[in-house]
Amino acid sequence: MSASQPRQTADAAPTLLVKIFGKDRPGITAGLFDTLAAYSLDVIDIEQVVTRGRIVLCALVTSPADGDTDGGTDGGTEGELRATVHSWAESLKLQAEIISGTGDNRPRGSGRSHVTVLGHPLSAESTAAIAARITSTGGNIDRIFRLAKYPVTAVEFAVSGTETGPLRTALATEAAEIGVDVAVVSAGLHHRAQRLVVMDVDSTLIQDEVIELFAAHAGCEEQVAEVTARAMAGELDFEQSLHARVALLAGLDASVVEKVRAEVRLTPGARTLIRTLKRLGYQVGVVSGGFTQVTDGLKDQLGLDFASANTLEIVDGKLTGRVVGEIVDRAGKARLLRRFAAEAGVPLSQTVAIGDGANDLDMLNAAGLGVAFNAKPVVRRAAHTAVNVPFLDTVLYLLGITREEVEEVEAAEVPST
Description:
15 strands
């Protein structure tokens, strides 16, 4: 058979797995396939990994016929191929292994998921526990690769053979026991096509609770903080607690709004998260039980696509102690997520919601992926996944975005003048 003729490889056809490993350098991949080209082979599969300067290159190819069949110079026996590959590898101080077999790779099992594991650090013990739990659910780990090495270590497992729901439940239990963060999402195009990210503001996008910043200027910070903590833990009805806290702000001069805006501190990684998502084509929004007097500024500052929050009533230059308009509470946040998704033209299954409090739970559960960010225990237990490190941009790794892609976005940004 000449090299120009197509070769159909049946499942039972003889194949060779050619493995090359050793010190990496430019030209190894080209050199191997240059060597194999003399035998008129078809390439069935290729996998290459470089770790700390060491390469592992695997090529699954059709087995050569016993010499050329048309009188030409192409072709050669399997024995000749083995000798040639080993000789080439030795010339580069590499090791070669060639394994005979039949057909292609074993088909992957039904039910495919991406499992992202975040550790700070990621220990061998934790990795062993996650791998064992995947196996215990009937899953098989098909591939592992690193997404990031800082500010956390993030690795992704491609898993087949078990459904996403049961796998997520099993790994959530394991993750809580060993102290790592694990996210499980279904494999497929939507893994990289989650085009809308909506997040809470207080203690998520920013480090502060906005109403407490206002309360500090009104001299009632301790009273407000106590009510806020109880509301976020799910001990109080949010709307009632909101009215009670806002009433304490009555009489404040409206000029305090600009002071509070200046005091707001973004969570580490917030700018990187939003900048990367926007550069990659995602739409980004915020929903807040706080106030439009602050979220409108954040929308302009960060280039957000959507923003919604409660509005403090201001009359004659003073806060009245009341809010006006639709209340953004627990149910309201989920409702706004759906509204934003509809306006963005994104299916709800392709949305990501991020939050930390009990009033975020409906939104987290409604989204395709709900992320509890440094959240209260009740929220961590109910969300799809949890992130317990203080860097908001680690959410990017849960979406399959690598650190290298983040750095490319960062490098492309032109500093403002």
